[in-house]
C-alpha cells in the first residue's frame, strides 16, 4: 500500500502551506477530508501539543495504516497574558471573521507602547504513526502586534503580526518567505526530520 501522510485539518489555506513545505518529501499529503474522514474532534487539551496529538490520534483511529499529522497553532500576546493562545481559532466564535478578530485585538492594544506589544505565533505538530507511537514538535516566531491591519497574504492573524527584522507583517510577506520564517514552517521542518529518521529518506 502506498505510504501517505494525512493531515488532520479541513483548512485549505493551511493545506496550501503544508504542501509547499513538504512538497519534495516524495510522499503524497492529503487533508483528512480528501482521505474520506469526516469526524468531529473535541480539542480539550491544555496546550498546543496536547491538542495537536488529540487531533492526530482521532484521525489515526480511522486511518490505521497512514502517517497522520495534525497541528495546533495560535497567537500569544504578552500584554494580554498570552491570549488568545490555544483558543486562537475559537476566539470570539469560530464563525467570526478574522477581520473582526484582528480588529478586536488592535482595539485592546490601542495606546499600548511598542515595547509592550510583544507576541509570538506558536505551532505544535504531532505525528501518530501506524504503530501507534507519537511525536510532537514545536515552532515559534517572535514579533509584535501591529497598529493596523496590513497585508493581503496569509490568513488568520497574519495581517496584525509584525516582524521587526523584516519591517512588515506576515500578511505582507510572500508565501515563500513566510514559510521559511513561520511557526508552522519551523515545526513542519522539524517533523520532516523525524519522518526522514524514522523511515529513511529512501523509504519516503
Features:
alpha+beta; nucleotide binding; ITPase-like_fam; hydrolase; ribonucleoside triphosphate phosphatase activity; metal ion binding
Shape: globular
Main sheet attributes: strand count, strand direction, barrel closure: 8 strands, mixed
Number of DSSP strand runs: 8
Mean pLDDT, to the nearest integer, reads: 93
Q: Quickly count the helices.
A: 5
The class by helix and strand makeup works out as alpha+beta
N→C terminal distance: 13 Å
Low-pLDDT regions:
none
Element-level helix/strand string: EHEHEEHEEEEHH
Radius of gyration from the alpha-carbon trace, in angstroms = 17 Å
Question: What would you say this structure looks like, in words?
Answer:
Homodimer. It comes from Mediterraneibacter hominis. Its cofactor is Mg(2+). It contains five helices and eight strands; from the N terminus they run E-H-E-H-E-E-H-E-E-E-E-H-H. Strands 1, 2, 3, 4, 5, 6, 7 and 8 form an eight-stranded mixed β-sheet that branches. It has helices spanning 12-22, 48-60, 98-108, 175-181, 183-199, and strands spanning 5-7, 29-31, 67-77, 83-84, 118-128, 134-145, 161-163, 168-169. Helix 1 packs across helix 5 (183-199) and helix 4 packs across helix 5. The longest helix has 17 residues, at 183-199. The mean pLDDT is 93. The chain is an alpha+beta fold.
Topology:
Elements: E1 5-7, H1 12-22, E2 29-31, H2 48-60, E3 67-77, E4 83-84, H3 98-108, E5 118-128, E6 134-145, E7 161-163, E8 168-169, H4 175-181, H5 183-199
Parallel strand pairs: 1-2, 1-3
Antiparallel strand pairs: 3-4, 3-5, 5-6, 6-7, 7-8
Helix pairs in contact: 1-5, 4-5
Binding site for Mg(2+): 72
Protein name: dITP/XTP pyrophosphatase
Keywords: Hydrolase, Magnesium, Metal-binding, Nucleotide metabolism, Nucleotide-binding
